[in-house]
Structure formats: C-alpha cells, structure tokens
C-alpha cells in the first residue's frame, strides 16, 4: 500500500500510473522567472498606488518571502520519505523544483519592489516581526512538528498524523493561504495595477493547483487502501484545522487591509476565505461548513481559463511538448 514503510524503487510494473501522469503534466507547465516583466510594476509603485495599497503590497511580499520555503521544508522532511511509490516521488521531486522556482520568483519580487536594503531585510524577517504573518507561520510549524519525529509509518496513529500533515499543507497552506494571496494580486490587476506580479502569479497558480491535485490524489488513494483511517475523528480534526486556517488568514486580512483599500473589505475577504474553505472540504469529500458564495467577481474575470475547475483540468496553456509512450504493465 502507498503508506507502507519502506522505499519501493521499482517503476515496472507501475502501481500508481496517475502519479506518473501528474509528473508529466507538471513538466509541461515549465516556466522561468526571467519571463516575468516587472517594468510596468515599477511605474505603478512609484506613481499610481495609494498609501493603503502600498501597505497591502508590502505585507503581501513579506508573506511571500518565506511561505514557499516552509512548504518546501515540509515536503523534504515529512512527505517524500513516507509516500512509498517511485512514481509519486517523481512528482514530489518536480514539486520541490517548483517550490524553489517560487522562492526565486518571490526573491526577485522583493529585490524589484523593495530597493531599500534595510526594508528588504525586514521583509525577510516577517515571520518574527509581523504578528499576522507569525501566526500563519506558527500554524504551519505546528503541523510540521507534529510528524517530524516519525521515521516510519508503522502504526495507525502514525498514518493518521501523516494524513493530517498532508491535508493541512494541501488545503490550508497552499489551498487557502496562497489562494488568498492570489486574490489580493488579482484584485490589484482588476484595477490595472501590478500586471507583472499578476503574470508571474499565473504561473505559480498553475503549479500550486497541481500540488493540491497531487496531494488530494494521495489522500484518495489512501482512503481506498485504508478506509478505516477516515473516521469521524479525522473528519472533525480536519474541519477544525481548516476553521483555524480561516481565522489565521482573517487576521492577516485585517492587517493587510488595515489602512483601508477602496473596493476590498475585510468582511468580503472573510467571506471569500469561507468560500474557499468550503471548496477544500468538498475536495476531501466532506460537507461544506460555511455555505457562502464567492464575493469577488474579479476572480471570475481574471484569466478564467486559469481560475476555473483547476482541480480537474489538465493544464493546456503554455505547455512544453513531451513526446514518447508509456506502457504501465511492462516489467523489467
């Protein structure tokens, strides 16, 4: 089974071809930071943004500075060693590359947006210096630490802890924290601002959608193989986890919008977070909690192809050609 202790190295016959196809699709969505043009963003930052919008951007960039590094650390320390399928580890290897690419993108973003070295240093210290970002980081570290001491998933309790870690990072951190950040970016672009940031975010969005799709497929595979793990206690823990994530992100919204950004309120942002949280619960096969609609029309208007049905579609825009056939039942 997928979570059996050990390190299966045999790709033939392939036990989980869906993970291999996810790896191939991720390769097709290859991009580089050098493709992102920030030139118009510099004009916006210098001449077009209101002070409250500058505060929003400053907080957003500060969150980006460490967010993907936390995800990458969990990927290496807690996920790769426990998913016992070589084709799944191929995808995780590709995901680690993408997380590094995102870190490079955000590093470039900071260097471009914040020319002052002292201010830039403060942005990198956001986890320690900014309470709303520190709370989100502490939420992440709680779930990293929950499984750090587990070397092998020998018991039902160990596998349950692994599932909670995976679900947290897929649905709460990548699936809520980062999707909330994307909403701020697309809001700014709906006003004709920071188009370079939005263009780069499109690439990151596609990557993150793939990461969540993979993690959810792992969860569903484990559900088929070990249905006894998915009891009422697990569901209750997941529901509480997602609710806590909404609270963390709401505090960040109160901070990032604290100076008053015209057209974007904390109330609407809270509703959007609840809307996304319900999506995540549905992704896991659970009933929604909040029952609210998406309050942001601009999310439907901005790159509809990228934003719609992102858990079920194959990425088709800007794909690098991949050739060759794969036979899944071939043996060495």
Question: Would you write up a description of this structure?
Answer:
This protein is mainly alpha-helical and 332 residues long. It has one domain: Ribonucleotide Reductase, subunit A (Orthogonal Bundle), CATH 1.10.620.20. It is built from 13 helices and no strands. It has helices at residues 17-28, 39-48, 51-79, 86-113, 117-124, 126-129, 131-148, 156-190, 195-225, 232-256, 266-283, 297-301, 304-307. Helix 7 packs antiparallel against helix 10, helix 8 packs antiparallel against helix 9 (195-225) and helix 10 packs antiparallel against helix 11 (266-283). The longest helix is centred in the middle third of the chain and has 35 residues, at 156-190. It is globular. Residues 303-332 have low confidence and may be disordered.
Outline of the structure:
The chain is mainly alpha-helical and 332 residues long. 68% of the residues lie in helices and 0% in strands.
Reconstruct the topology from this structure.
Elements: H1 17-28, H2 39-48, H3 51-79, H4 86-113, H5 117-124, H6 126-129, H7 131-148, H8 156-190, H9 195-225, H10 232-256, H11 266-283, H12 297-301, H13 304-307
Helix pairs in contact: 1-4, 3-4, 3-7, 3-8, 4-9, 7-8, 7-10, 8-9, 8-10, 8-11, 10-11
CATH class category label = Mainly Alpha
| Count of DSSP strands | 0
**Rounded average pLDDT:** 88
Number of helices: 13
Biggest sheet layout: none
Enumerate the spans where pLDDT stays under 50 for 5 or more consecutive residues: 303-332
**What is the fourth-level CATH superfamily?**
Ribonucleotide Reductase, subunit A
Shape designation: globular
What series of H and E elements makes up the topology?
Answer: HHHHHHHHHHHHH
Count of the separate structural domains: 1
Q: Work out the strand percent.
A: under 5%
- CATH arch. level architecture: Orthogonal Bundle
Q: Specify the structural class.
A: mainly alpha
Which percent bin holds the helix content?
Answer: 55-70%
């Amino acid at each position: 089974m997928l979570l059996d202790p050990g390190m299966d190295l045999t790709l033939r016959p392939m036990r989980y071809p869906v993970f291999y196809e996810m790896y191939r699709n991720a390769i097709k969505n290859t991009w580089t930071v050098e493709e992102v043009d920030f030139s118009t963003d510099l004009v916006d930052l210098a001449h077009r943004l209101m002070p409250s919008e500058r505060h929003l951007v400053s907080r957003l960039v500060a969150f980006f500075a460490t967010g993907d590094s936390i995800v990458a650390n969990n990927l290496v320390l807690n996920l790769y060693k426990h998913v016992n399928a070589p084709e799944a580890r191929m995808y995780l290897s590709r995901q680690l590359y993408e997380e590094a690419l995102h870190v490079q993108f955000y590093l470039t973003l900071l260097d471009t947006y914040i020319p002052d070295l002292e201010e830039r240093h403060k942005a990198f210290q956001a986890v320690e210096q900014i309470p709303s970002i520190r709370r989100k980081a502490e939420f992440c570290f709680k779930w990293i630490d929950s499984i750090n001491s587990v070397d092998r998933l020998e018991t039902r309790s160990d596998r349950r802890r692994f599932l909670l870690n995976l679900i947290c990072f897929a649905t709460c951190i990548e699936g809520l924290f980062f999707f909330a950040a994307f909403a701020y970016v697309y809001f700014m672009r709906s006003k004709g601002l920071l188009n370079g940031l939005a263009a780069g975010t499109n690439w990151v969005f596609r990557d993150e959608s793939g990461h969540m799709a993979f993690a959810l497929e792992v969860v569903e595979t484990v559900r088929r193989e070990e249905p006894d793990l998915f009891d009422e206690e697990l569901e209750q823990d997941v529901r509480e986890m997602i609710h806590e994530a909404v609270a963390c992100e709401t505090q960040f919204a109160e901070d990032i919008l604290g100076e008053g950004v015209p057209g974007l309120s904390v109330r609407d942002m809270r509703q959007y977070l609840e809307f996304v949280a319900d999506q995540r619960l549905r992704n896991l096969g659970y009933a929604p909690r909040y029952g609210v609609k998406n309050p942001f029309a601009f999310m439907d208007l901005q790159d509809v192809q990228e934003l719609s049905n992102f858990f079920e579609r194959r990425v088709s825009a800007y794909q690098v050609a991949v050739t060759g056939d794969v036979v899944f039942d071939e043996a060495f």
